[in-house]
Amino acid sequence: MRCSCSRSRAVGVRYADIDRSEQNALSALDRVAGANGKGQLNVSAKRSSALALCLVALAGWPHMTRAAQSSIVTEDYMIESGDPGIRLFIRNKHPAGMSGYRGDRTVLYVHGASQAASSTFDLKVDNESWMDYIAARGYDVYLVDLRGYGRSTRPPEFAKPADENPPVVRTDVAVRDVAAAVDSILQRRRVGTLDLIGWSWGTVLMGRYASEHKDRVHRLVLYAPIWLHEPASTASTLGAYRTWTMEAQRKTLQSGAPESKLNELLSPDAFASWSAAEIATDPEGGKQSPPVVRTPNGIYADDRDYWTAGKPLWDPAEIAAPTLVVVGDWDGVTPPARAQVVLSKLVNAPVRRLVQVGEATHIVLLEKNRLQLFREVQTFLDE
Fold first, then answer.
1. Fold of 2-382
2. Burial degree of 169 (CB within 10 A; 0-12, 13-18, 19+)
3. What is the pLDDT of residues 24-57, one digit of tens each?
């Protein structure tokens, strides 16, 4: 057994490794800026954000494009969830000309409680998304938007006021969506295994799936993992879904970082592009002023009923695949202490490793130190 721990500069990483062996878009953005009392966004930010919004809106099904700068092929399509009327959005990226597919070079990413995969994992910051980064290194990469998120079907409860129904898309339902996505990919590429990456609530879903389908998971990445914690000030009564503005969501996801560092971590242009992409996922919410996004409350009901009640929804000891746990040291949503607990419970993983990224919050995948996250995960996937 080998265990090592080191720390670089404040913006470096800390790790422990334990081995065994254009117009509607502009208007929407102006409404965001106006609601914040900041006037209109600068022209460059508006143009880049409008472009992001238009690209999201124009992507059809099926739709295939090629990113000239990196020769990456992109395909968007829908799959059946297994429940009538519910379809799931899938995006695939891989190098142009790839003809042979391998399980150890196939990756599926799933998002967390509020942000769709299509508007974060594949959001270009400085002309490259995390999805692009992995695909450019010879991987066949997929993302899935769970039901109620992104471009997947909204549950019928979204057509009514939130308080008329209980929380929708709880963990058991979301894990079924993950299983549907995995089944589709394995069948499509005729491979037997794949790598899984989960962010935040996605770590619960990927951890649960990996524990129940050991033969299908080659490697597992848990980015900002959820674990047991003390109750927060969550309302005891939760409706089917919640609504939030981008400013409010940014404040939540970057909690833990010094106030003076927020704009340095996430640039105004990156925030504008992220806002445009996320608002585009909910046309109804986008009509409001300021624009809002509606997402399911299932995870918050599970947090209340399980994670704050001492009842974890998956068992890390059941993981049999090499596993990387990664977290930002300024993550106020899922603090590093929880990641350390998860690492300690991965007792049957042949490799278990913890990476802590300096000066990084819950949404480091869009922040200035995102390349540290990308490189650490890539190193693990390539082993």
1. Rossmann fold (3.40.50)
2. buried
3. 444 444 444 444 444 444 434 444 444 444 444 3
